[in-house]
């Protein structure tokens, strides 16, 4: 029986050194290969300080792990770039690069599709096809750096998929993206967005790594959430807020609440007032995102006056809030939409 080859980009430097020992090699070879990977080596033949015999051995038991750019679109409005990547099994995923102020932020996908079923989201229409491996999440960032020649400073886990539903791979991704001799992206520059899988929020907090947590709330009422997010049937808002408070205590980081404003669904003054009451006294911030229309869904953005009234009502009650401008709106703004159109 043929044994499964190992993806070397899944490893931290230490793990790669350990791996070398398991195949009868000296551990420093792990550091050499690690350095080559982050220098952009695409094949073992590129690694010219590695003996040919070891390169042949590596070829037999492992592979580096590369995904390919299938399509790239650039927004004429704000320079945002959207990429479709082709995975080794033929699946396609979507990644976005945004460049504002001095920050270069990449929004990575975490799964092919999603099984959470939020009614406004294009990523979930065909359900979950599969989880991404750590290296497949990482390589979205590597390939965008190579393509643009820019150093990525910030990562948001806000593309397709639910990171806490692919938790083991997400944890490993967080380790490898933070590697000193790798991409070296600091935890404070990473934001993980979740629809609110409560037990995993506690687990994430217990890792005590200071990444930013974004919680997709979208309604101050359990009943309202249940209408648009099936996950709300499993976890109440009270449970979510308790978990967020625990996260803040453990990490000392401010939590962001994502609130996608949908016309006539969750954009009333009452909802703004209830939200303010709910979040009172919490170290938090609210990100208001006017919903991006998705062809298969009937939801619409509220009128501008409603959006700003909602924000002002939160601010009046001392809840910091911003309206997030939609980046790349001319190139299929809603997450997962470009992928769907391409398919
Ligand atoms: C695509 S999700 C991925 C991360 C995670 N699964 C979550 O739900 O937080 C990232 C954010 O995009 C929001 N979102 C999804 N579809 C949207 C749409 N059509 N318009 C605006 N925001 C949307 C989600 O609610 C969430 O806050
Ligand atoms: S919003 Fe997030 S959790 Fe909900 S379906 Fe989309 S990707 Fe999945």
TrEMBL record:
Cofactor(s) required, per the database record: [4Fe-4S] cluster
Record: active site: 94 (proton acceptor), 335 (s-methylcysteine intermediate)
Top-level EC class as recorded in UniProt: transferase
Biological processes annotated in GO: rRNA base methylation; tRNA methylation
Note describing how the cofactor binds: Binds 1 [4Fe-4S] cluster. The cluster is coordinated with 3 cysteines and an exchangeable S-adenosyl-L-methionine.
EC number: 2.1.1.192
Chief location: cytoplasm
Radical SAM core domain mapped to chain residues: 100-330
Pfam families xref list: Radical_SAM, RlmN_N
Entry-linked InterPro entries: Aldolase_TIM, Methyltransferase_A, RlmN_N, RNA_MTrfase_RlmN, rRNA_lsu_MTrfase_RlmN/Cfr, rSAM, rSAM_sf
Subcellular location: Cytoplasm
UniProt keywords, alphabetically: 4Fe-4S, Cytoplasm, Disulfide bond, Iron, Iron-sulfur, Metal-binding, Methyltransferase, rRNA processing, S-adenosyl-L-methionine, Transferase, tRNA processing
Record's keyword annotation contains Translocase: no
UniProt-listed Gene3D superfamilies: 1.10.150.530, Aldolase class I
GO molecular function: 4 iron, 4 sulfur cluster binding; metal ion binding; rRNA (adenine(2503)-C2-)-methyltransferase activity; rRNA binding; tRNA (adenine(37)-C2)-methyltransferase activity; tRNA binding
Amino-acid positions noted as binding [4Fe-4S] cluster in the UniProt annotation, renumbered to this chain: 114, 118, 121
Any one cellular-component term (Gene Ontology): cytoplasm
Catalysed reaction equations from the record: adenosine(2503) in 23S rRNA + 2 reduced [2Fe-2S]-[ferredoxin] + 2 S-adenosyl-L-methionine = 2-methyladenosine(2503) in 23S rRNA + 5'-deoxyadenosine + L-methionine + 2 oxidized [2Fe-2S]-[ferredoxin] + S-adenosyl-L-homocysteine; adenosine(37) in tRNA + 2 reduced [2Fe-2S]-[ferredoxin] + 2 S-adenosyl-L-methionine = 2-methyladenosine(37) in tRNA + 5'-deoxyadenosine + L-methionine + 2 oxidized [2Fe-2S]-[ferredoxin] + S-adenosyl-L-homocysteine
Record bears the keyword Cell cycle: no
Top-level taxon of origin: Bacteria
PANTHER family attached to this UniProt entry: 23S RRNA METHYLTRANSFERASE (PTHR30544), RADICAL SAM CORE DOMAIN-CONTAINING PROTEIN (PTHR30544:SF5)
Physiological role: Specifically methylates position 2 of adenine 2503 in 23S rRNA and position 2 of adenine 37 in tRNAs.
Similarity comment: Belongs to the radical SAM superfamily. RlmN family.
Note: Reaction proceeds by a ping-pong mechanism involving intermediate methylation of a conserved cysteine residue.
Name the record gives this protein: Probable dual-specificity RNA methyltransferase RlmN
Source organism of the structure: Asaccharospora irregularis DSM 2635
Biological classification of the source: Bacteria, Bacillati, Bacillota, Clostridia, Peptostreptococcales
């Amino acid at each position: 029986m043929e044994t499964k080859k190992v993806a070397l980009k899944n490893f931290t430097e230490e793990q790669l050194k350990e791996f070398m020992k398991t195949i009868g090699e000296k551990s420093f070879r792990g550091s050499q290969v690690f350095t080559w990977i982050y220098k952009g080596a695409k094949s073992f033949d590129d690694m010219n300080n590695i003996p040919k015999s070891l390169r042949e051995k590596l070829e037999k038991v492992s592979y580096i792990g590369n995904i390919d750019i299938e399509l790239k679109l650039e927004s004429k409005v704000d320079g945002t770039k959207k990429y479709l990547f082709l995975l080794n099994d033929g699946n396609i995923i979507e990644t976005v690069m945004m460049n504002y102020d001095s920050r270069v932020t990449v929004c990575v996908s975490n799964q092919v599709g999603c099984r959470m079923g939020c009614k406004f989201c294009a990523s979930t229409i065909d359900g979950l096809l599969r989880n991404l491996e750590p290296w497949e999440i990482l390589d979205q960032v590597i390939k965008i750096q190579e393509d643009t020649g820019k150093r990525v400073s910030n990562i948001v886990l806000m593309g397709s998929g639910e990171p806490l539903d692919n938790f083991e791979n997400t944890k490993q991704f967080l380790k490898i993206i933070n590697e000193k001799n790798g991409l070296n992206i600091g935890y404070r520059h990473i934001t993980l967005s979740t629809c609110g899988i409560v037990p995993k929020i506690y687990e994430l907090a217990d890792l005590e790594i200071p990444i930013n947590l974004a919680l997709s709330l979208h309604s101050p009422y359990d009943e309202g959430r249940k209408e648009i997010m099936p996950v709300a049937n499993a976890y109440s808002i009270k449970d979510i807020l308790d978990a967020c408070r625990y996260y803040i205590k453990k990490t000392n980081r401010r939590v962001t609440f994502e609130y996608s404003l949908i016309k006539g669904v969750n954009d009333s003054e009452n909802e703004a007032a209830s939200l303010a009451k709910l979040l009172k006294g919490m170290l938090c911030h609210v990100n208001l995102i006017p919903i991006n229309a998705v062809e298969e869904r009937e939801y619409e953005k509220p009128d501008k006056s409603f959006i700003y009234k909602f924000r002002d009502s939160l601010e009046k009650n001392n809840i910091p809030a911003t309206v997030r401008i939609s980046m790349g709106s001319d190139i299929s703004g809603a997450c997962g939409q470009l992928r769907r159109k391409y398919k």
